[in-house]
From TrEMBL:
<feature type="transmembrane region" description="Helical">
    <location>
        <begin position="16"/>
        <end position="40"/>
    </location>
</feature>
<keyword id="KW-1133">Transmembrane helix</keyword>
<feature type="transmembrane region" description="Helical">
    <location>
        <begin position="162"/>
        <end position="183"/>
    </location>
</feature>
<dbReference type="InterPro" id="IPR011138">
    <property type="entry name" value="Cytochrome_b-558"/>
</dbReference>
<keyword id="KW-0812">Transmembrane</keyword>
<feature type="transmembrane region" description="Helical">
    <location>
        <begin position="112"/>
        <end position="132"/>
    </location>
</feature>
<feature type="transmembrane region" description="Helical">
    <location>
        <begin position="60"/>
        <end position="82"/>
    </location>
</feature>
<feature type="transmembrane region" description="Helical">
    <location>
        <begin position="204"/>
        <end position="225"/>
    </location>
</feature>
<protein>
    <submittedName>
        <fullName>Succinate dehydrogenase cytochrome b subunit</fullName>
    </submittedName>
</protein>
<keyword id="KW-0472">Membrane</keyword>
<dbReference type="InterPro" id="IPR034804">
    <property type="entry name" value="SQR/QFR_C/D"/>
</dbReference>
C-alpha cells in the first residue's frame, strides 16, 4: 500500500484529490439547491418542511452527510497542503513579476476565496442546521404528523438578520468565481482536455458558476424584498 500513499501525498496526487473532491462537492451543491427550492412552492412551506425532516432523519442521509463532511475536510486540507508546498518551493518572489498578465486575481487567490466560503459554511450550519436540530423553533402539523417549521426559520433569519443576508449574497459571488476557476481546473488536472470537448466543459463550468450561486443568493434576496 506504500505506493498508494506515496502517490496520494505527492503534488500530482494531491491535485487529483482536489479535483475529485471538488467535483463531488459541486454535485452536492446541486442536490442541496434543488431541495431548497421547495420553499418557493405555494403550499405554506409544507413541501420544504417535509423535505427538511426527511433530510434530518433518514439513515441513508446520515451516511451521505458523513461522506460530504469528509469531502469538505479532504478538499480543504489538501488545498492548505498544496498552498504551503508552493510557498516553500518559492519562499522568495520573483524580482520581476506581472501575475495579472498571466492569470486572474481569483485564480491566484483560490485559497482566500475558499477560506471565506468555509467561514460562511460554518456560520450557515450554526444558523440553520444547528438551530433546526437543537434549537426551539415552531412546529406545524400535517395530517396528524408534527414537523419543525424550517420554512419559518429560513424566512425569519433572512428577513430579520439583514446583515447575514447581505453576507450570504457576497459569499455567493465569491463562490461563483471559485467555481468558475475550479471546475475547469479539475478537468484539466484529470487529463480531460481536448479541443473537441474542452470548450463544452468550459461553457458548462461557466453555467454552473453563475446559476448555482445565483440560485442560493435568490433565497436571501427574495425574503429581504418580501419582508
Amino acid at each position: 500500500m506504500s505506493w498508494i500513499t506515496q502517490t496520494l501525498t505527492s503534488t500530482i496526487g494531491r491535485k487529483l484529490v482536489m479535483a475529485l473532491t471538488g467535483l463531488f462537492l459541486v454535485s452536492f451543491l446541486f442536490v442541496h439547491l434543488s431541495g431548497n427550492f421547495l420553499i418557493f412552492r405555494a403550499d405554506g412551506g409544507r413541501a420544504f418542511n417535509e423535505y427538511s425532516q426527511f433530510m434530518s432523519s433518514a439513515g441513508i442521509v446520515r451516511v451521505l452527510e458523513i461522506i460530504m463532511v469528509l469531502g469538505f475536510a479532504i478538499h480543504i486540507y489538501t488545498s492548505f497542503v498544496l498552498t504551503r508546498r508552493n510557498q516553500k518551493a518559492r519562499p522568495q518572489g520573483y524580482a520581476f513579476s506581472q501575475p495579472s498578465a498571466n492569470s486572474s486575481w481569483f485564480s491566484r487567490n483560490m485559497g482566500l476565496s475558499g477560506s471565506l466560503v468555509l467561514i460562511f459554511l460554518l456560520l450557515h450550519l450554526r444558523t440553520f442546521w444547528y438551530t433546526y436540530k437543537f434549537g426551539d423553533i415552531p412546529t406545524v402539523t400535517y395530517e396528524g404528523t408534527e414537523y419543525k417549521d424550517m420554512a419559518y426559520l429560513v424566512k425569519t433569519v433572512f428577513q430579520q438578520e439583514w446583515w447575514l443576508s447581505i453576507f450570504y449574497v457576497i459569499i455567493m459571488v465569491l463562490l461563483s468565481f471559485h467555481l468558475m476557476h475550479g471546475f475547469g481546473s479539475a478537468f484539466q488536472t484529470l487529463g480531460i482536455r481536448h479541443k473537441k470537448y474542452t470548450p463544452l466543459i468550459e461553457k458548462i463550468g461557466i453555467a454552473i458558476a453563475i446559476l448555482v450561486p445565483a440560485g442560493f443568493a435568490a433565497f436571501p434576496i427574495y425574503f429581504l424584498l418580501t419582508r
